[in-house]
Amino acid sequence: MLTRGLPYDAEDHSAIKGAALPLSVPPPPAAVAPAPPASSDLEAALLEAFDWGRPLPPGPKLSGTAAREDRWLRAAATFDPARDLPADPFPAGAPRQEAEALRRLLRTSGDRLARALATQPLRHTGTALALWRWGRLQVRSGAFPPSLRRAWEDCLLSGGPGLTRGYALRHALCWALADQDEARFAALRPKAQGQADDTLRGFQRLFGVLGGPSPELRLWRLPGLEYRDLRLDQLGARRVWICPVQEGPLPDLPAKVAWIIPSLAGGLGERDASLAGEALIEGHDLAERLRTAGRAAQFAPSRVAFERLGLAWFPALIELDASGRVQAIRMGDAAPERP
Fold first, then answer.
1. Cα 1 from Cα 48, distance rounded (Å)
2. Pick from 186, 118, 192: which is nearest to 151 by CA?
3. Does 3.40.30 match the CATH number of domain 216-334?
4. Is the pLDDT of residue 28 over 90?
5. Which of 71, 130, 137, 309 has the most CB within a 10 Å radius?
């Protein structure tokens, strides 16, 4: 799971203001059972759980179309895209046609797959979520050439809920940067539909970093926790891996890879000269882990410093040429599993 993502659209459910007050207090109403939550609220709760990697909420008591749409969404969130297809709960009609078109698409490859992606409807949230999960596996496994990857991204950007559109936009932008494809980046701008201006500006800054000198960051060396302002080419390696520490054993990085650990809190100022608050606690915890493992790394406690460059998702791999200039940036969805 990436450390930051695009939020999906949220409706404004502000309370209605200005209602007139009754002239007298009415008698209390008879006791009634609370109304069940709306299907849109149930869908939002399920998508939020999926986005955060939490267990899905229990299946609600629904009937008719709402029950079938919930079953389709849950199938999309839980099927194994490497082995299975999401079960189609719909009877005859347009929803079944959409679900069966997707199931055929997930068994298709090559030119036929490109044509199927161009015509796949995404009227149901489950359809878009299943397509996202399946396609992401294809990209990670190397099964998609760039043309199919872009067709899959464009299909997801054409419809579906804000969550999967946000996933697809992030994925497409990360790969445009990795490919250094400014034409693709330009083509993605109108697809953002004004919902991700800050993200687009960040990627624009990263395109500007390509080919330029190594950026400078204020870094605390681990395990000693002494800070220095260093350019990336001063870290002693031409490959710089920026990745938070996960639970469990520390990653086994190849030789000649410099490791920068971004703070999970990230609240320190860009030019602060001492650690404080959560950054201090985090820094001491990291120092102890690396000291115990006999490892060294750099700790970056300021989120602002990364955002100034446009680095929004981790892991990120930055490659430098022999003169220390930035040769490539692979971030987020386009980053390798290990450097």
1. 14
2. 118
3. yes
4. no
5. 130
Token readout for 324 is 């220390």
How buried is 117 (Cβ within 10 angstroms: 0-12 exposed, 13-18 middle, 19+ buried)? Answer: buried
- Which residue in 326, 305, 233, 224 sits closest to 263, CA to CA? 305
Digit-coded pLDDT (tens) for 256-303: 999 999 998 878 888 888 898 999 999 999 999 999 999 999 999 998
Strands (E), 76-204: none
Q: What pTM was computed for the model?
A: 0.86
Strands (DSSP E) along the chain, which ranges?
A: 216-222, 226-231, 239-242, 257-262, 297-300, 316-320, 326-331
- The DSSP secondary-structure symbol of 56 reads P
Q: 187, 189, 198, 315: which is closest to 259 by C-alpha?
A: 315
| Calpha distance 265→285 (Å, rounded) | 13
- pLDDT band of residue 40 (cuts 50, 70, 90) is confident
Q: How far apart are CA 142 and CA 2, in angstroms?
A: 19
Q: Which of 141, 143, 172, 140 is nearest to 156 (CA)?
A: 172
Backbone angles phi, psi at 73, to 5 degrees: -65, -40
**Residue ranges of domains in the chain:** 41-195, 216-334
Locate 182 and state its tokens.
Answer: 């400014």
Sheet holding 297-300, edge to edge: 226-231, 216-222, 297-300, 257-262, 239-242, 316-320, 326-331
